[in-house]
Amino acid sequence: MGGAIEKLEMERGKMSNIIESFENRNNRLSIKGRKLIANSLLSSKLHHCTTAFYLTSKDFASTQQIIDKFTHKKKIMSGKRKYLPTSRAGLALPCLATRHQGARLAMLKNIILLKRDNKTIPGWAIILEKCLQKIGFLSIENLLISAGFADLKLVKKYLNKIGFTSLAMLFDNFINVSNLLSNDDIGLKIYRKKKKTKEN
């Protein structure tokens, strides 16, 4: 964890330099232009070096403040609503903690797709699958296809018990895992009962 915080602090310093450079050249950037810079030059580099680590909203707080101050300089919207997409009346400003969580969950999806194509998977994924096999799951995909909330809690508890905390946190949010993987026909299918209509 210490290594992740150090990288975060290093990237924060680079962000401040990039922002200062743009502010000195053009102080009249629109929100759209600021969002483009924040997404392409700021947050993308940050997630590249921190995805392997479990970090919380608190860890990202000071870095988020730097990005918020740059992208939302005129402060036209209060609270967390500014992070919502424009389709939900937000400004779609980058929320670092949410994107970090999404990037970590995407690692699970990528491992499944690599295995489907018979490609080599990274060492951490091999370790994870060996751990899953110890508690009855043949693979990551096998877990996510059959998993319910109790299964994911079991996996998280087991991984924490044997010291793989960062791997355990990949399964921290059951709903986000399901939503992320469903578009690729991986993971749970959540069925909702149809409401019965009253006959006249």
Could you characterize the architecture of this molecule?
There is one protein chain. This protein is mainly alpha-helical. It folds into 2 domains: 2-94, no CATH class; 104-182, no CATH class. It has helices at residues 2-25, 31-50, 57-71, 96-116, 123-134, 140-146, 149-161, 165-168, 174-182. The longest helix is centred in the N-terminal third of the chain and has 24 residues, at 2-25. It is elongated. The relative contact order is 0.09. The model is unreliable at 189-195 (pLDDT under 50).
Produce the secondary structure layout.
Blueprint: H1 2-25, H2 31-50, H3 57-71, H4 96-116, H5 123-134, H6 140-146, H7 149-161, H8 165-168, H9 174-182
Helix pairs in contact: 1-2, 1-3, 4-9
Key descriptive features of the protein:
200 residues, mainly alpha, 2 domains, 9 helices, 62% helix, elongated
Short description:
It contains nine helices and no strands.
Number of strands: 0
Tally of helical runs: 9
Give unreliable regions as ranges: 189-195
Helical proportion, percent range: 55-70%
| Sheet with the most strands, sense and barrel status | none
Please write the string of helix (H) and strand (E) elements.
Answer: HHHHHHHHH
The number of domains: 2
Q: State the end-to-end CA separation.
A: 63 Å
**Helix- and strand-based class?**
mainly alpha
Shape: elongated
Rounded radius of gyration (Å): 20 Å
On the 0 to 100 scale, the average pLDDT is: 79
Taken as a percent bin, the fraction of beta residues is under 5%
